[in-house]
Design a protein that fits this description.
- This protein is 20% helix and 30% strand.
- It has 196 residues and is α+β, with helices and mostly antiparallel strands.
- The chain has one domain: VC0467-like.
- Strands 1, 2, 3, 4, 5, 6, 7, 8, 9 and 10 form a 10-stranded mixed sheet that branches.
- A hairpin with a 2-residue loop joins strand 2 (28-35) and strand 3.
Length: 196
Amino acid sequence: MSLENINLTGHLLIAMPALTDPYFSKSVTFICAHNQDGAMGVVINRHTDITYNALFEKINVELLDSSIANQPVLYGGPVQPERGFVLHPATQLKNDWDSSITIAENTALTTSKDILEAVALGEGPEKMLLTLGYAGWTPGQLEQEIAQNAWLSVEPKDVDSLNSILYEMQHEKRLDATMALLGINFAMLSDEAGHA
């Protein structure tokens, strides 16, 4: 199979056991963009030690929605760890945030402060995932890593199964849920690539 012309936008990437990089070991990454310029995504199953409350204090926005105050902000990846990235259903773009991209028609990524200001007031997206930082790959790098058995790509079967993983389950259950889309569990994976 040639990896040259694949487009993994909207897919979930599971770090294979061979990938021991501490940033990505046992991670699940949602790919937000994949094109000739490279790839970008956010890790969806790792939390930081920063709560929503602490993050909002740091950006000088008063968090009025106490129901999310103690929720952990997720670790999105090693690139720009000081910057927030909000994944949410694209149907919730009615507010026209300053900086949003639509991913695979059903999910959006917003990086502007205005979405966080809305969240603080309880007026943000009903479903969302907030990360600090993102994962990035140069042109051809992700394809090469997949060929080296570092990642396993999973395309969610439908919007409901993707939304369930992204927004409805606890972050520590997302690896098993993503593996379940393939009908296998993480313990079944080998760290050796098979060659016929």
